Amino acid sequence: MAAPLHLHSSQASPLPNSIKELSDSAGLSSIPFLYASRSSEALLTDVVEHEVPIIDFSLLKKGTPDQRSQTVRDLGKACEEWGFFKVVNHGVPERLKDTMVDALGGFFDLTEEEKGEYTRKHVMDPIRCGTSFNLNVDKFRFWRDYLKVFVHPVFHSPAKPHGFREISQEYTTCMRVLAMDLLAGIWESLGLEESNLTTALDLHSCFQIFIGNYYPPCPQPELAMGLPPHSDHGLLTILLQNGVDGLQLKHKGNWVNVKPHPNSFLVNTGDHMEIISNGKYKSVVHRAVVNSKSTRISIANAIGPSLDAVVVPAMELVSDGGSSVAYHGMRYREFIEHQQANPLKDKSVLDRIRL
C-alpha cells in the first residue's frame, strides 16, 4: 500500500480548493497526508452485508386499511431496529431524479471561480459550497465537495448552471411532500397525533436543506473518507444516489454496506426523531467511503422542525410509557449551529442534551 503524500512547506503548490480539482490533477497517485483520515481501527472494522428494510410507499398512501396498517407497523419497526429504510413505489418520476443528479453534476463542473461565489464562512448561510466538512475545525480533510442550500421555508438556489433553480425547486418540493407523508406514518406508529406534532414542531415552516455531495475517484480509498461517522440533525433525511456504492451505516456494532436499490430512496431517522420519540427511534450513525474508479454523487434532503422550535420528547411517550424524559430541549437552530461548527463525530451534539 502506497504511503500518503506529505506536502512540506517548501513545496510551491498549495492544496487545491476542491476535491474535484485535486482528483482531476494529472498523475495523482497518492493523496496528500492531510486527507489520510482513516484510523487503523477503522481499517480493521468488519463491513457486513445486510438488506435494509424496504417500505412500499404506495401501500402507505393507497393501500387497503389492512395494508396501510401493516405498512405503518413495518415503518415503525424499521425506525426502531435500523433507523434506515428504502422507499419504493414512491411516485417521484425517474426523469426528475435523473435530471436533478445531472444538474448537481453540472454545478460541480463549474469553474472554481464560479463556485467560489458561493463559498461562505457561516454555517447558516443559505447557499454554501466547499470541500471536506468544515475546514475551520477539521483535523483531516475529507474526500468530498459539497453544495448546501436552504430550500424551505424560503427557497434559495445558485444561479448556475442554467436550469438548476427550476429543477431543484421541483425536486425539493417533491421531497418535502414525501417526507411529510412518511412522518405521518411514523407518528402513527408511535401513537402520536399528527396535528399535535405539526403544531409543536411548526412543520408548516419546517427547515429543509438540500445537500449535494460529490465524491470523485480517490487513488487511495483505503486511507481517505468521504464523511466520517455521524448522525443527521433533523427528523428525516431522504437520500438519492447515482448508483455508486459508498454509504455505510452502523447496525448492531457492525458497519453495513447499503447498496443502491433501483428507483428507490434511502431514508434515515435523525437526532430530532430520537428526541421526539424519547429514544425509541434512535438516529443512526453512518459514513461515506470512497473508491478509486467511479464518482459518487448523492443528494440528501434533510427535513427538520422549524428553526425556532424547541424540541423535547413527546409527553405522550413519557407519561403513557412511564419513562423519564431522556433529553432536554434546545432550539433547533442552535443544535444545527453546534453540529456544523464543530468536528463531525458520531452523535456529539445529541449527547450534550441527553439526560
Automatic annotation (TrEMBL):
PROSITE patterns: FE2OG_OXY (PS51471). GO terms for molecular function: metal ion binding; oxidoreductase activity. InterPro entries: DIOX_N, IPNS-like_FE2OG_OXY, IPNS-like_sf, Oxoglu/Fe-dep_dioxygenase_dom, Plant_2OG-oxidoreductases. It holds the Pfam family 2OG-FeII_Oxy. Residues 202-305 form the Fe2OG dioxygenase domain. Keywords: Iron, Metal-binding, Oxidoreductase. Belongs to the iron/ascorbate-dependent oxidoreductase family. This is Protein DMR6-LIKE OXYGENASE 1-like. It comes from Elaeis guineensis var. tenera (Oil palm). The gene is LOC105058534.
